[in-house]
Amino acid sequence: MLETILLPAVWTCFAAYTTWYLTSAKQYAPLTLEEARLLWKIHKQKAQCKAKRWREIHHRGKIIGFQCECGYKHVQKKPIVT
Predict the structure, then answer these.
(1) Over the chain, what is the mean pLDDT?
(2) 1 falls in which pLDDT band (50, 70, 90)?
(3) Domain ranges across the chain
(4) How far apart (Å, rounded) are the C-alpha atoms in residues 28 and 48?
(5) What is the DSSP pairing of strand 62-68 with strand 54-59?
(6) Phi then psi for 71, rounded to 5 degrees?
(7) Calpha distance 27→80 (Å, rounded)
(8) How far apart are the C-alpha atoms of 75 and 63, rounded to whole Å?
(9) What pTM does this model have?
């Protein structure tokens, strides 16, 4: 009796966790310098930001985002499984 309830419950929990992990886990997506600059310009227009400078955010030697002088950070991430 216990196996008929416990085993399906464990498998259901495992399937739910696996689905959650595969859909919510993310990894960094590299950007080119031009893409980062364009994203910063879009940020300036949308937020009416007055900042004059921005800096690149690097991860393992690649550009993954930028940080504006105003404090805004953008990091490009993509799901592990698409």
Answers:
(1) 92
(2) low
(3) 2-79
(4) 27
(5) antiparallel
(6) 110, -10
(7) 6
(8) 9
(9) 0.70
| pLDDT per position as a tens digit, 17-53 | 998 888 888 899 999 999 999 999 999 999 999 999 9
How long is the chain? 82
Alpha carbon 63 to its chain's center: 14
Residue of 20, 35, 31 lying closest to 61 (CA atoms): 31
Backbone angles phi, psi at 44, to 5 degrees: -60, -40
Please work out, in degrees rounded to the nearest 5, the angle formed at the alpha carbon of residue 75 by the alpha carbons of 74 and 79.
Answer: 135
Instruction: Give the residue-averaged pLDDT of 1-5.
Output: 77
Beta strands in 1-82, from DSSP E residues, in sequence order: 26-28, 54-59, 62-68, 73-75, 77-79
Looking at residue 6, what DSSP letter applies? H
